Amino acid sequence: MSMLGKEIRMSRLVNPKSNKMMAITVDHAISRGIAGMTGIQDVQSAIDKILLGKPDAVTMTKGIAERCMPQHAGDPASILMKISNPAPANPTRDVVFGTVDEAIRMGADGVSMGAIMMGDFQGDQIEKVGMIAEECMRKGMPLIGHVYPKGENVSMEGRTAWENIAYCVRSACELGMDIVKTTYTGDPDSMAKVVSCVPSSFRIVIQGGDACNTLDDYLQMTRDAMDCGVGGVTMGRFVWDYRDVTALVITLRYIIHEGYSVKEAKELLAQLENDKNYDQF
């Protein structure tokens, strides 16, 4: 079976210069509610600002893509179609509500789904991941997983333990995912252990980081993650809650793809926030 379709789509998700992926997520409302998600209450404006910063991809649900992306048809950023989410009342169980065919029809370059591991609903979720992975393979679609050790059997401290995160990424790889989004362990040495637990061709990307509190924290985490072998980022709230979304997207892009240090990134961010000359970057 030809894998050309998947290879073409994967090539659009990964920057050829850095061999890293930078995606921004706006799929939070179903899983977390909308009242507290101030940065994406006006989701069209958020998407417009994000895309102006030229990320590699944006993760969103089918309804938002259908209503917010037509004006961006032809933009280089790929759509990652989120087809599952948990809910505030059931936070440890991802429920599938979309299909691979919908993602293909809407021009997506990847299908995105979640699994909350080490909890009561792990078995049900990984069964669905396995089925979707097989369908994605047949239809030439990359499968991106949002896989976290946040089930009922994991303490708050255990959510960043390298052993638990390694279990998540190895499980994602064994189930047939192509890219897994997961939690950063908190330091490059332990995250390097996670990276070593999967084949080099399997891509791990990190979320924004529940433990980060400041801009410096996020920028340093991004730099450290790139240096220890992580294959990119898929960030959400940190980006679209920032006062200048486009400037931050560009700054993260320069850390991830251009190898900027934290110091260089902060200088670039300050300049972009002042001059608003986004089109020059």
UniProtKB/TrEMBL annotation:
Top-rank lineage group of the source organism: Bacteria
InterPro entries the record matches: Aldolase_TIM, DeoC/FbaB/LacD_aldolase, DeoC/FbaB_aldolase, FbaB-like
Pfam families: DeoC
PANTHER family: 3-HYDROXY-5-PHOSPHONOOXYPENTANE-2,4-DIONE THIOLASE, FRUCTOSE-BISPHOSPHATE ALDOLASE CLASS 1
Protein name: Fructose-bisphosphate aldolase
